[in-house]
Structure formats: structure tokens, C-alpha cells
Automatic annotation (TrEMBL):
Protein name as annotated: AIM24 family protein
InterPro entries assigned: AIM24 (IPR002838), AIM24_sf (IPR036983), Trp_RNA-bd_attenuator-like_dom (IPR016031)
Annotated TM spans: none
Record SUPFAM superfamilies: TRAP-like
Length: 210
């Protein structure tokens, strides 16, 4: 069972089951726990190939046992996401933990990944269970509907779920609109029905001032 203690610490209560978490994110535990390092970027041969092509740096550990384990990373804010057979797309740097029964993998993101400097792939989490994602500041959850598409600064993007289509727009950015940046950059446009998680702080990007 996932629960938050404050907004920056995740507590996971385990009864001989397991959780996947960002390597090195364990801050304390009680009871009996074992820790096993897993490969990041997906499961199986496909995940191995993807990691080799993209240079994916995310590493994940499996924690198994009886008791409570606490996770945190650089005092980031944590948001819990419930999955009911759907798929969550999350930047590798924003992933904290997921039920061990959830399937993890990678998905091609194309231009968005290149514009963020995070590679061309993003992490996917799919199945039934809970996941925990991190953000620089409290995450804001925005609804996308057929009537209300959403455009997001790629530096603020954290994750999304639901039946959403992505497209990428280049040109004027929010900062250049106010004379605070220059050069070409990208925006992400979401259409369909789903949720988008954004953070109130922008990560550094390499495709212009975003």
C-alpha cells in the first residue's frame, strides 16, 4: 500500500510483496527487506536494446519484504497515480516507485525527448496498481478533453495518462513571447481525453530557450 507522509516522502507497506523504485531512493525501512538492482528502460530483450540505443540512464531496484519502506529523492514533491489497466507515460527523471506487478517499458517520444535533453524515449507504466511520480514543486493535474486541448512547455511536462494524442509545435515559446529567450524550441500539444501532470518549474532543455 502506497501512502504519503507529508508531500515529499512515500511510505510503502509490504507483506512479503515487492515494489519497484528508483535506485538509491530508499531513505529508511523497518522489518525485513531485500534489495535487488534491476535494469532501467524496460523489461526483457526489447528493453535492453532500447537502453543501448538511447543511453537510458534510469536504474530501478526491487524492494521485497515484510514491513514499511520509505522513499524520497532530493526533496521532490510526490504524487500518487492509480492505474486501472491503463498506461502512464512519465519522464525517467520523474519516476519514483511502482507496484512490482505493474509492467514497465519505454515509448518513443520523438521531438519532445530531444527538446528536453532526456533522450528520445520515455518510461511507461501499465497495469493495475499504484505508481508514485516526482515533480519540482507540487504537480498540477490538468484535464484534456475533446473541447479543450492542452499545450504544454516541455520543460514543465512530467507525465500523462489516458487516450491522448501528442503533437509537437516549433517556433515561438512562452519565454520568447515576453522577450526572455531566443531561438527555436518546442511545445507539446495534447488532444483527446486524459490527464497531464506538469510541474511549476522548468528543467533545463537543449533545443532553444523553452
Amino acid at each position: 500500500m502506497f501512502r504519503l507522509q507529508g508531500s515529499k516522502v512515500l511510505a510503502v507497506d509490504m507483506t512479503q510483496d515487492a515494489v519497484k523504485a528508483k535506485n538509491g531512493s530508499m531513505v529508511a525501512y523497518d522489518g525485513e527487506m531485500t534489495f535487488k538492482k534491476l535494469s532501467g528502460g524496460g523489461e526483457g530483450i526489447r528493453g535492453m536494446v532500447t537502453r543501448r540505443i538511447t543511453g537510458e540512464q534510469m536504474t530501478v531496484m526491487e524492494v521485497r519484504g515484510q514491513g514499511t519502506c520509505w522513499f524520497a529523492d532530493r526533496a521532490s514533491e510526490i504524487t500518487l497515480v492509480g492505474l486501472r489497466g491503463d498506461k502512464l507515460y512519465v519522464e525517467s527523471s520523474n519516476f519514483l516507485a511502482a507496484d512490482a506487478g505493474l509492467r514497465t517499458g519505454t515509448s518513443f517520444t520523438g521531438t519532445r525527448g530531444a527538446s528536453q535533453g532526456n533522450g528520445l524515449f520515455t518510461t511507461t507504466i501499465e497495469g493495475h496498481g499504484q505508481a508514485a511520480i516526482m515533480s519540482d514543486g507540487p504537480a498540477v493535474v490538468l484535464r484534456v478533453s475533446a473541447q479543450y486541448p492542452l499545450t504544454v512547455d516541455p520543460g514543465a511536462y512530467v507525465a500523462h495518462q489516458g487516450n491522448l494524442r501528442q503533437s509537437f509545435q516549433s517556433g515561438v515559446t512562452f519565454r520568447t513571447l515576453f522577450g526572455e529567450g531566443g531561438g527555436e524550441a518546442f511545445q507539446i500539444r495534447f488532444e483527446g481525453d486524459g490527464l497531464v501532470y506538469v510541474q511549476p518549474s522548468e528543467r533545463n532543455t537543449i533545443a532553444g530557450d523553452v
